[in-house]
Amino acid sequence: MKRHTFWNDLKNYRVLLLMLAPAVLFYILFAYVPMAGIVIAFKRYDYAGGIFGSAWNGLDNFRFFFESGDAWRVTRNTALYNIAFIVVNNALQIFAAVMLFEVGGKWFRKITQSALFLPYFISWVVVGAIAYNLLNYDIGTVNAVLRGLGLEAIDIYNTPAYWPYILVLVSAWKGLGYGTVMYLAAITSIDTEMYEAAEIDGANIFQRIRKVTIPNLYPTIIILVLLAVGNIFRGDFGMFYNMIGNNGLLFSATDVIDTFVFRSLITSNEIGMSAAAGLFQSVLGFVTIVTVNYAVRKYDKDRALF
Amino acid sequence: MKHLDRKIFNIIGYVSLIVLAILCLLPFILVVSSSLTAENKIITDGYQFIPTVFSGEAYSILFKYPQQMIQAYIVTIGVTTAGTALGLFLTSMTAYALSRKDFKWRNQFSFFFFFTTLFSGGLVPWYLLIVNYLHMKDTVLALIIPLVLNVFYIIVMKSFMSGIPEAIVESAKIDGAGDFRIYARLVLPLSKPALATIGLFLALAYWNDWYNALLFISSEDLMPLQYYLYKMLGNMDGMRKAMMGAGAVVTTAIPTESLKMAMTVVATGPILLAYPFVQRYFVQGLTIGAVKG
Fold it and tell me: For the segment A293-305, what is each residue's pLDDT rounded down to a tens digit?
């Protein structure tokens, strides 16, 4: 009987299933098959044997990764950068969204929003070029200004200590428009009656923002922060690679898991070890997002991701 | 007193928004200005926001021997067009099937897609699959396939299509229309705003892509624009060679610094020109995404 309904369903939904087929095949091939390819993290890869024919070497790749000392450095950098990005970016985006909503006429709002959104549209390659423009020792604008003021120029590309600040700024700069629009959409959907009620109660604008606007943004904030926290062990390769490139002098402060895996794979061809680092990252990320989601679910079921 | 609060608030608001807007625009002005400044001025005084000594030399060199640049443009335009069209078709078709409330397995399939955003095999198996098993290295497919589908776009499209009244689908069914016909003739025309938004997201991703080229492309004929720019920025010797290889008789020194910036302007230009017209759709699309959460 059950079998019978299954075949019936299959017949009923054959067109819909056919329509899903390309995407399903795509994700099987490019997402699920590579998941099976994780086995190379436990193998000594050789080109003749390929993914499934190479010899097993147990946990050697992981041992190599952890004993090199790179594991701790890149994991710490990845997490710390992402935490800084989450805090700074969201705070700035909420601030800009609230201000955009409250201040100015239609044109002011339109023009400001366009300006804030502009950096989102350019590639990381161009951002890298702009950064070079500003920070270069010989001809960068920052150093030109410093010299003009009679101060000593600073060799930014040789000094790791500056980079955490620079990268946080760049991330905030590029993401400001996108996040501001997200939060602005959430603010716009707040029931205006709430504002009116606050007005009648004699609340001034600061109180109104603190007591009405911000609390109403909590669901959006939670979703966006949850998504970001789930990706806390995923470094933004485009940003780090175009800002730093292969400048080894800065790696102590700027190397993240993604740039490390990339270099190990492409530059030094250590396939087993880079696969081990990648698997370590995936598992950490998976555990993080499931944990965070579980916590949110306990707190408020409707706000969880899944 | 209420008015004083409002005044203080407005001053804070205007000042901070104007400062933020200027900070977002300034780097672009710097690049354009640098590309128009005489090389020796840059060498002595650094990049500046206003071209104190104007020179169009960088652009005239760039446009004198533009073969490689044009080739990169052709690759990028081709990949962007083909990828966006294919991506829109696949995304909307998938989203339509998932949006059908009478489709019994829609949740299972949704999870099948969603799970790939939670866990992945990492870069290495994916890279080896594409290079060693699918042999896509140095093919145009390596630039199109990796970006063609994105779970986030499917979710946004699905939630938009879920908002289309079911009665429309029902009445078409009664008229004897098949599922694909309903999708192509009824649902697609009604989904124009979502299609415009996702189309723009896809086009932007393709236009700005350099990562897949970094991984998979070594042939110069297949270099997309952003990757070509990346190569040139990091390798001025390569740039000189490209200029000479194109038949340039280099009598004077090539103004490398202003040339870098001129290339950046030329590679970014079309995006910045299209930007004022497409921004609206981005905002719309983000709003759809935000509502869904």
Answer: 888 888 777 777 7
- Its ipTM equals 0.91
Q: Count of alpha carbons within 13 Å of B274, Cβ hemisphere only?
A: 13
DSSP-assigned letter for residue A152: P
At residue B292, the pLDDT reads 45
pLDDT digits over A30-44, tens only? Answer: 999 999 999 999 999
d(CA A1, nearest CA chain B) in Å: 17
The C-alpha of A148 sits at a distance from chain B's nearest C-alpha, in angstroms, of 9
B120, B149, B291, B292: which to substitute to probe chain A, counting the most A Cβ within 10 Å?
A: B120
Chain A contact for B129 (CB, 8 A cutoff) = yes
Q: What is the pLDDT of residues A63-86, one digit of tens each?
A: 989 998 889 999 999 999 999 999
Would you call B233 and A266 a contact, using CB atoms and an 8 Å cutoff? no
Task: Among B42, B119, B215, select the one facing A139 at the smallest CB separation.
Answer: B42
C-alpha closest to that of A262 among A281, A241, A233? A241
The pair of structure tokens assigned to A63 is 């041992």
Give the closest residue to B76 by CA, choosing from B198, B233, B196, B203: B203
Q: Report the gap between the CA of B54 and the closest CA in chain A (Å).
A: 17
Instruction: Indicate if the alpha-carbon torsion angle B126, B129, B131, B135 is positive or negative.
Output: negative
Are B49 and B30 spatial neighbours (Cβ–Cβ below 8 Å)? yes
Whether the CB of A128 is below 8 Å from some CB of chain B: the reply is yes
Q: Count how many residues are written for chain A.
A: 306
